[in-house]
Design brief:
EC number: 4.1.1.36, 6.3.2.5
Cofactor: Mg(2+); FMN
Protein name: Coenzyme A biosynthesis bifunctional protein CoaBC
Number of helices: 5
Shape: globular
Region (Phosphopantothenate--cysteine ligase): 11-222
Number of domains: 1
CATH topology: Rossmann fold
Catalytic activity: (R)-4'-phosphopantothenate + L-cysteine + CTP = N-[(R)-4-phosphopantothenoyl]-L-cysteine + CMP + diphosphate + H(+); N-[(R)-4-phosphopantothenoyl]-L-cysteine + H(+) = (R)-4'-phosphopantetheine + CO2
CATH class: Alpha Beta
Strand order of the largest sheet: 5-4-1-6-9-10-11-12
CATH superfamily: CoaB-like
CATH architecture: 3-Layer(aba) Sandwich
Helix content: 25-40%
Order of helices and strands: EEEHEEHEEEHEHEEEH
Bound molecules: cytidine-5'-monophosphate
Length: 222
């Protein structure tokens, strides 16, 4: 990154999927690879920020200079974000957090029987909305929205509903978004909106970090 646009700033991110255990050997998860969040963490560190990355299970190397905290479940991710959020300048919720978890993780392996099996799922905490709702010491809060249709409209609704400063929306579908190297993002913030890509996630990450740095500067001129 050519310019230290985040020098002296602290950035906290979530990335990757979460894993919600059903029993000791099975879990519910999703197709998130963590690539976008890890690319953002790498770029933020290269731009001079002190970066903390709370990562769900993903097979990616830790970017240079990034403090990585590994978690499995949404509840663990929520707890780590709560533990580290004070004093951060920017929070980027990039993780594909499981919306639901099994009401109880069974202690022994669930046995096969001929009968139907019903799963009782309960909602997970919304990590991003909790950060955005902080009354004090609230970082500039950035979320992602994976949408299949009417991307701009759904994403700006989500930005308002969750109280975000900026939302990065992407269209998901066959060959797009999840577990791919390329992506296309629609950024929406208070001051406007802008399309990034299509292009490699690393290039989009650099542009998104530049936009966040710009918003910070507009927000709180030093
Ligand atoms: O509402 P939806 O899940 O589409 O919102 C996506 C955004 O919210 C992402 O930025 C994701 O990281 C964040 N999120 C979260 N905690 C949840 C669900 C979503 O932080 N439980």
């Amino acid at each position: 990154f050519a310019e230290p646009v985040l020098a002296g700033r602290r950035v906290l991110l979530t990335a990757g999927p979460t894993r919600e255990p059903l029993d000791p050997v099975r879990y519910i998860t999703n197709r998130s690879s963590g690539k976008m969040g890890f690319a953002l963490a790498a770029v933020a560190a290269a731009a001079g920020a002190e970066v903390t990355l709370v990562a769900g299970p993903c097979a990616l190397p830790t970017p240079a200079g990034v403090h990585r905290i590994d978690v499995e479940t949404a509840e663990q991710m929520y707890a780590e974000v709560q533990r580290h959020v004070a004093g951060q300048d920017v929070f980027i919720g990039c993780a594909a957090v499981a919306d639901y978890r099994p009401a109880e993780a069974v202690a022994g392996k669930i046995k096969r029987s001929g009968a139907d099996l019903k799963l009782h799922l309960v909602p997970n905490p919304d990590i991003l909305a909790a950060v955005a709702a902080r009354a004090e010491d609230r970082p500039f809060t950035v979320g992602f929205a994976a949408e299949t249709d009417r991307v701009l409209e759904h994403a700006s609704d989500k930005r308002r509903r969750k109280g975000l400063d900026l939302i990065a929306a992407n269209r998901v579908g066959p060959g797009l978004g999840f577990d791919t190297d390329d992506n296309q993002l629609e950024l929406i913030w208070d001051g406007g909106h802008r399309q990034l890509g299509p292009g490699p996630k690393s290039a989009l990450a650099a542009e998104l970090i530049t936009q966040i740095a710009q918003c910070l500067q507009d927000d709180k001129p030093e």
